[in-house]
Recover the amino acids of this structure.
């Protein structure tokens, strides 16, 4: 069996569906329709803004590449030929192909640093009032224990709003001034990968963002991520404290 014929699309809105991607590539024949679209996920289990699409022929690949820099909604999408190993590497969280635009990648994403540790997504939306943030376009960064790190990534609906967001650099949120600087969806994905990797490389069962003790992580739409992560951290500390007291009693 020969190599699968793939293209990679980058810069997708985080909420883009497989059907919307098929519609974007309407001039190409996609293997299996929506089944031939592979949306990549970050270490939170959320769409990273990248996808791979399997085409039926080389002609379909060329038709897809012709869509490079065309808009999906208000976002410019990068499209280029990819290999099966590229897709498998990205699925594993190890990008085998550096971003073509490197640090100059411009997909309307900024990074915030210095956020109050009690900050929630609603605070970030308020901070950027007047600018259009993508639906579900705020990613709060936590470490592998679930503790909020005071950082976040924000994806705007347009590159222009992403640039305007930089004017908020050194603006206060509460009593803290916030650093705002250019970033990218790939940087967000890599940051989450590093942040959720426990020291020594030993993970906990159930994935890098899940707590132990039967805790079920609620949907991000149900409550703020910062509150959920804080609860996970408290649960972890409580479990360690209980374990410590048990060991102390057993030695008496």
């Amino acid at each position: 069996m020969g190599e699968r014929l793939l293209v990679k699309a980058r810069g997708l809105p985080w909420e883009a569906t497989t059907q919307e991607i098929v519609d974007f590539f309407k001039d190409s024949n996609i293997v299996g329709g929506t089944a031939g679209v592979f949306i990549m996920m970050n270490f939170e289990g959320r769409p990273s803004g990248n996808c791979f699409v399997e085409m039926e022929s080389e002609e379909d690949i060329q038709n897809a590449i012709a869509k490079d820099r065309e808009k999906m909604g208000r976002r410019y999408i990068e499209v280029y030929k990819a290999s099966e190993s590229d897709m498998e590497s990205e699925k594993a969280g190890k990008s085998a192909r550096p971003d073509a635009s490197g640090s100059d990648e411009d997909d309307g994403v900024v990074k915030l640093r210095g956020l109050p540790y009690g900050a929630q997504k609603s605070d970030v939306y308020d901070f950027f009032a007047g600018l259009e943030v993508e639906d579900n376009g705020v990613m709060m960064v936590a470490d592998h224990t679930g503790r909020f790190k005071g950082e976040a990534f924000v994806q705007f609906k347009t590159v222009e709003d992403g640039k305007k967001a930089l004017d908020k650099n050194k603006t206060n949120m509460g009593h803290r001034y916030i650093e705002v600087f250019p970033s990218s969806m790939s940087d967000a994905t890599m940051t989450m990968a590093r942040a959720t990797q426990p020291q020594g490389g030993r993970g906990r069962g159930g994935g890098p963002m899940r707590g132990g003790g039967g805790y079920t992580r609620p949907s991000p739409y149900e409550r703020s991520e910062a509150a959920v992560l804080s609860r996970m951290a408290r649960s972890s500390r409580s479990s360690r404290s209980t374990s410590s007291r048990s060991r102390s009693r057993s030695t008496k």
Q: What stands out?
A: The beta strands are 6-10, 37-41, 47-54, 70-72, 75-82, 109-113, 133-142, 148-156, 171-173, 176-182. The longest strand covers residues 133-142.
